[in-house]
Specification:
By secondary structure, the chain is mostly helical. It has ten helices and no strands. α2 runs antiparallel to α8, α4 packs antiparallel against α5 and α8 runs antiparallel to α9. The termini are far apart.
């Protein structure tokens, strides 16, 4: 029985069936459970920590190695982006209280309407989650900018998962501790957050793509990254136009009461 695959009835000569891949029969006992628990936690943690360590050292090279086939020791990059985005969102919302701090900033320092204040505060609180949802979009942008450099769209999805993971790791280790200690100074908090989001992201992308395309010149990489930011700005304004048109139609249908929530506080 132990030498016969219970899935396809083929003879097993090793630990796994050579026909279907099922593991050789082993009776469930204490050793079996201990081995399974040990494999689940230690193997998962090893892959997770291995990927995090390598991303911190050189995110671009790590992504390139993975795409080119060196994958056995790595955590799945899209799953890694999910996990790190969740950790980042939990810290920003539950520990640093992004939404509370930024809502106070927008209410005090800018004459925004309540809806815009709420939207911006929520967006910044869950920034890592929104960026995770936009990975397919960012992949489209990077694929457009690096069109003739050899990677297909799905490889760009994986690349952007590594970029997001790198961004989240840097936030969790370096940025969030600083924000935690300056959260009572809402103006400094908002300025520092904006700086990291734009300037920090710019230099992160340069470092990432220089590591991935190490044979390309730094000047070429900078120009390509500027191209990505340019496309993001264009997409942002297109989104604003679409939202504006959509709200205009909504306001026309619903009447004056539809705009009351958008009016600035007196």
């Amino acid at each position: 029985m132990e030498n016969i695959c219970l899935n396809c009835n083929e003879m097993i000569t090793a630990n796994f069936c050579g026909n279907c891949g099922q593991k050789k029969y082993k009776r469930i006992n204490r050793k079996y459970v201990v081995d399974e628990v040990q494999y689940t936690f230690l193997h998962t943690n090893k892959g997770f920590l291995y990927s995090v360590k390598n991303i911190l050292k050189n995110p671009g090279k790590t992504a390139k190695d993975f795409i080119e086939g060196n994958r056995v020791n790595h955590y799945k990059p899209i799953l890694l982006a999910f996990v790190l985005s969740g950790i980042s969102a939990f810290i920003s919302y539950k520990i640093i209280h992004f939404e509370k701090v930024l809502k106070a900033f927008y209410e005090e320092y800018t004459p925004n309407s309540p809806v815009l204040t709420d939207f911006m505060a929520t967006l910044n609180s869950y920034n890592s989650i929104f960026m995770l949802l936009l990975v397919p979009f960012f992949a489209l942008l990077s694929k457009t900018v690096f069109m003739k450099w050899g990677q297909n769209y799905y490889e760009h999805v994986v690349m952007n998962a590594f970029v997001l993971s790198y961004y989240n790791i840097c936030n969790i280790i370096f940025v969030y501790p600083i924000l935690f200690f300056i959260r009572d100074d809402i103006q400094l908090f908002a300025i520092f957050t904006s700086f990291i989001l734009f300037a920090g992201s710019f230099f992160m992308l340069i470092w990432f793509y220089k590591g991935f395309y190490n044979e390309r010149s730094l000047k070429t990489i900078i120009l390509r990254v500027l191209g990505i930011f340019g496309l993001i700005v264009v997409a942002y304004f297109i989104a604003l136009v679409i939202v504006g048109i959509g709200f205009s139609i909504y306001a026309y249908i619903k009447g004056p009461e539809a705009v009351q929530y958008l009016l600035p506080k007196k």
